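Colleagues,

Please find the record for the two-part complex below.
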Amino acid sequence: MTQLATFIGRAATLGLLLAGLAVPAAHAQTDLLGQLETETKKDAPATQVVDATFKSTRLINGHTVETPGEGTLVFLFSHNFGTVNEGFSSLFGFDNAKVRIALEYGISDRLEVGLGRSSLDKTVDGFLKYRALRQSTGLHAMPVSVTLFTSAAITTDSYRTDAFDRTLGLRTAYTYQALIARKFSPELSLQLVPTFIHRNLVQREGENNDVVALGAGGRYKLTKRFSVNAEYHYLLSKFTAVHQSNSVGLGVDIETGGHIFQLHVSNSQGMIEKQFIAETAKTFLSGNLYYGFIVSRNFTVKQRHRK
Amino acid sequence: MTGFLRSVGRQRYWLLGLLLWLGGLAGPLGARAQAKYMTKTGVISFFSASIMEDIEARNNKVAAVLDLSTGQLAFAVPIREFQFKRTLMQEHFNENYMESEKYPKATFTGQVVNAAQVLKLLPTASQNVEVEGQMTLHGVSHKVAVSGTLQQRDGQLIVFAYFNIAPADYAIDIPLLVREHIAKSVSVRVNLTCDAVTPNVVSQP
């Protein structure tokens, strides 16, 4: 049997040799490429990570599954103006702008740290983001990307007229999110964001310290550098759902090389999770709309090791 | 050849061999030596120099096959394997410029000009060669001529080439805002070390 196998092997090799000679010259080039194709197909990486699910680390106000790559520092300048219906006296919201400046840094291709400061309630926030799963195709295909997010926000306002003893603990609120996204096509990406927020201090009768919400959002790329985005956070906690409103945002991403401009309208003025998810005052349809933008600029602090 | 043939399941290898053998019988029984050289770990790097910034990337997963008996060659370059030092550049390269999802590979098929003469001298000394062929990049094909060198060393074939590509020729759109950042003409460097594809090693029991 072994002898037969060896014979066939030899014959096959000879056949291969002769076949190479038999092919007419005109077809040889495409043959070479075909041979190359079959060769590389065999060695092709078993799994291919799907990247650029979103252009930015933000969708509207909320985060996306994206993190800056290793060694990349992102400077984010977010700006939410007052509501348009404030009228001409405040130049349609221009006078009552809230800003947040933030720095985000990619420690690795998966882990990101961030620090921001919002003028709304003079809030300082720090966060960690970790890409737990990455959407991929191939042998070990993964249908979605999952990024875990946690943040702590501390209000540093003076609260002079307040009856509470504003200790550091009472000033703090925590957010935990699992960002689950899938890039369905180069144009369409959708995201689900289950959120849990815990405030150490709540001031109203019957209000729970915890807020649970389910966010959903997505983007659709109209051109290579322009997309429309939407985001919605549905409040599941009863008290909050009754007394606050679900945050809704509509916006666009415009990419210009190293910058990304994001313009949006939303019924939330806050730019961090505990504010825009748990503290949005009026509904989107009430017309109480804040328009705003985020400008982000990436800097390469540390050049990446090549694989 | 030993490597890749061994990696194929034995049965499939027989079947493939048998099919090719039957095909081979139909053709003329020439006595020319088969001299194919191949690599799957060739290196292609490119460099774009402009007033604003320098961009460079490197790909070491380039597949190429050269047939020294005919002077024909083929390249397949997986676009996603280009590694940049800046993650954002790499993302933009794949997403905005090369559209790697749509066009995952760049290919080149060509023919060494004056092959018979050049290849006769190759075993004795490194040869400067001119290659003419078809380059396909970003879904656009162009006839190009590239010059390079071939060298045979320790049973391997060393290939080197250096040429320029204009992104505009291959419908790679560069927006006005970053036009100063990306060179009109990007220089490309090819460096391959190909191993001989020799069937006689396989035939030994």
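Chain B has two domains: 1-31, 32-202.

Comments are welcome before we finalize the supplementary table.
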